[in-house]
Write a structure and sequence with these properties.
Radius of gyration: 16 Å
Distance between the termini: 47 Å
CATH superfamily: Ferritin, core subunit, four-helix bundle
Bound molecules: fe (ii) ion
Number of strands: 0
Length: 149
């Protein structure tokens, strides 16, 4: 993968992670359940760390972090505003799981494409973000099961 392509991919993640910060922050303020609201806030905080570590990576490669637009709508067919308008915490959790799975798949693909051909530091950051997304998806899934009981 050439540097241009890698920078484009990293900017894709940068934009997606920014979208997720916005989404989870909004979900946190619109959720009445205190515990779930705090969880969304914590997860938004971790997504902000992803935004920052991807941005640092882009800069280290000589690029400029660039917001490419709404990355969520093409995945779930809804913009952030419409997702928030959905009624029921279960719907939010299902969409969140879908988004985390998409992030995980894309992190895995990029890691696979650059491993051994790129600075180990970049790979390590992508892997760390992947683990966080895995934990988020697991928490959302668990919460969904608990609500169904
Ligand atoms: Fe993330
Ligand atoms: Fe996540």
């Amino acid at each position: 993968m050439d540097k241009e392509r890698l920078l484009f991919k990293l900017n894709w993640f940068y934009s997606f992670e920014l979208n997720q910060v916005d989404l989870y922050t909004s979900q946190s303020s619109s959720t009445k359940d205190d515990y779930i609201s705090l969880a969304f806030e914590r997860i938004a905080y971790i997504e902000q760390q992803h935004v920052d570590n991807i941005a640092d990576n882009i800069k280290e490669l000589g690029g400029k972090p660039t917001m490419l637009g709404d990355m969520i709508a093409p995945i779930v067919g809804k913009t952030v505003g419409k997702i928030l308008g959905l009624s029921g915490i279960e719907n939010l959790l299902k969409i969140n799981i879908l988004l985390e799975q998409k992030a995980m798949q894309d992190y895995k693909d990029l890691i696979h494409a650059i491993r051994g051909r790129c600075d180990d530091k970049v790979v390590k950051i992508l892997q760390s973000n992947l683990i966080d997304e895995d934990l988020h998806a697991a928490w959302f899934h668990n919460q969904l099961l608990e609500l169904k009981e």
